Amino acid sequence: MTSTASAPDSGRPLLNRRLAEFGTTIFAEMSALAVRTGSINLGQGFPDTDGPEEIREAAVRALRDGRGNQYPPGPGVPELRTAITAHQQRRYGLSYDPDTEVLVTAGATEAIAAALLALLEPGDEVVALEPYYDSYAACIAMAGGTRVPVTLRPSEGPRDGVAGRRFRLDLDELRAAVTDRTRLLLINTPHNPTGTVLTRAELTAIAELAVERDLLVVTDEVYEHLVFDDAEHLPLAGFPGMRERTLTIGSAGKTFSFTGWKVGWVTGTPGLVSAVRSAKQFLTYVNSGPFQYAVAEALSLPDSYFDAFRADMLVKRDVLAAGLRDAGFDVFTTAGTYFITTDIRPLGESDGFAFCRALPERAGVVAIPNAVFYDHREAGAPFVRFAFCKKVEVLEEAAKRLKGAF
Ligand SMILES: Cc1ncc(COP(=O)(O)O)c(C=O)c1O
Q1: pTM, rounded to two decimals
Q2: Residue ranges of the Aminotransferase class I/classII large domain (predicted)?
Q3: CATH 3.90.1150.10, domain 2-51+304-405, yes or no
Q4: From CA 323, how far away is CA 329, in angstroms rounded?
Q5: Can you count the helices (H) and strands (E) in the chain?
């Protein structure tokens, strides 16, 4: 175990105490289990189909033409920065200056790390929605901050998933979590792993709180294009008083199905973006040269691309949701992202960790216990996450295996 390894001649652990609790991720453990058991891996969120051919070709062209093979400019290549601002304008009516209000990062992961390292002083509190994407906790820890989780809780309602049972934000809990030490709110919508998309009312309340308490907001909106049914993605930066205090994070990996390219970005005021750039320049300095040109083209694809992408994922969501329901899981409605959260209690189970560790042998399928995304592990214990960004036939086979196993 990485976290407990120590130098040969001292009792001191190799891994520093800020990171000690983050030894090995569940994804590594579960993916290894998937390989060993020949299971279908619905654990990690990456598509099994690459993004648009023309965008892959755009990357090849950039490589061949020698665009981006050497260090690109620190803030990102101008073509991509302009494409990002044009996208924010076209989709949401938000105006950003491509020269001072955009920074290209090594995926959203680096954007999160650089933002937190830039904005936090040791001891600062970060209020984040729990369950949270696993890098949040680690990055808050690396920055010396303290995380203050606000737990999203399942709404009451019919248990058939179709009727819209979802995880919701308790606004009183959110308000109570803010103290004089709170530096920023770390928000994620559409939300991984619950599939919740924060509503206009929830976002309005978050914005009002941020303004009232004069807080910075970092909002991870990497699944902005994956919203279904009547859900709508509303960027937090568009709410009154938010533009000047909000850093918005996006990612090409999720929207264009090229997760390995690691092209992400932040948008915000010149002051905020320049702070993030100060941290980023000592993490990677620059990244993904040729891919930046390709993503610039991707962001300029017509609306038909984004519509078709969403429609394809919607079919996949419905195939997996039906299969899981059929196998006996309680299925929460995924309004956004490519994850489905389930409740395993109808199967007579209550410990998601034990369930997921046994599932590959039992059913030949890998899933992730939501408890890993919680500080209050007990609150997440009965929930298990499945990714549906896989081919329909793969999802159908997984559904068949699960049905046969229970
Ligand atoms: C909520 C959320 N934020 C950020 C990321 C990381 O994005 P990227 O691959 O662009 O680093 C992910 C990836 O799963 C995610 O789910």
Answers
A1: 0.95
A2: 40-402
A3: yes
A4: 9
A5: 14, 15
SS (H, E, C) 253-284: HHHHCCHHHCEEEEECCHHHHHHHHHHHCCCC
Quick one: tokens of 291?
């891919």
CATH architecture of 53-299: 3-Layer(aba) Sandwich (3.40)
Statement: residue 191 has pLDDT above 70:
yes
Cα 186 to middle of ligand 1, angstroms = 14
Instruction: Give the whole-number percent of the chain exceeding pLDDT 90.
Output: 88
Nearest residue to 19 via CA among 198, 197, 139: 139
Summarised one tens digit per residue, pLDDT across range 117-162 is 999 999 999 999 999 999 999 999 999 999 999 999 998 754 444 4
d(CA 122, CA 27): 29
**Is residue 338 within 8 Å of residue 226, measured between CB atoms?**
yes
Cβ atoms of residues 17 and 353 within 8 Å: no
Helical ranges in 180-288 per DSSP H:
200-213, 252-256, 270-280
Rounded to 5°, the CA angle 308-302-261 comes to 75
Output the residue whose Cα is nearest ligand 1's atom 13. 45
Q: Does 355 contact ligand 1 (Cβ within 6 A)? A: no
Quick check: CB of 177 below 6 Å from ligand 1? no
Answer whether 68 contacts ligand 1 (Cβ < 6 A).
no
Burial of 375 (0-12, 13-18, 19+ CB in 10 A): middle
Nearest to 133 by CA among 231, 264, 289: 264
Residue type, 73: P
